[in-house]
Write a structure and sequence with these properties.
The chain has 93 residues and is α+β, with helices and mostly antiparallel strands. It is built from two helices and five strands. Strands 1-2-3-4-5 form a five-stranded mixed β-sheet. The longest helix has 15 residues. The N and C termini lie far apart (29 Å).
Length: 93
């Protein structure tokens, strides 16, 4: 699986691609300098249960760490992951 990061103005996304097909996407908005808001996570119904959402979130966390940013998880999936995993809370806003 390949995870591609795209930014367009104040919006961005992490897109999971397998065999040329988009199988998941996590979108965010920039909320000023050093802050992003994860607003949506979606995984292809045929791919659910394979950890794709977690892979996307890990890429978002990695991106935030590299850019010294904080994340506000408005998306219910991302929020639940931050609640569960203390190892990624260093980027929590």
């Amino acid at each position: 699986m390949l995870v591609k990061h795209e930014e367009n103005g104040n919006k961005g996304s992490f897109i999971a691609i397998e065999d040329g097909k988009t199988i998941g996407e996590m979108t965010y908005s920039k909320a000023g300098p050093g802050k992003i808001i994860i607003d949506h996570t979606e995984v292809d119904p045929e791919e659910k249960g394979k950890g794709i959402g977690s892979v996307l979130l890990n890429k978002a966390v990695e991106h935030a760490r590299e850019g010294k940013m904080k994340i506000m998880p408005l998306c219910p999936f991302a929020k639940a992951q931050f609640d569960r995993d203390v190892n990624i809370r260093d980027v929590l806003f």
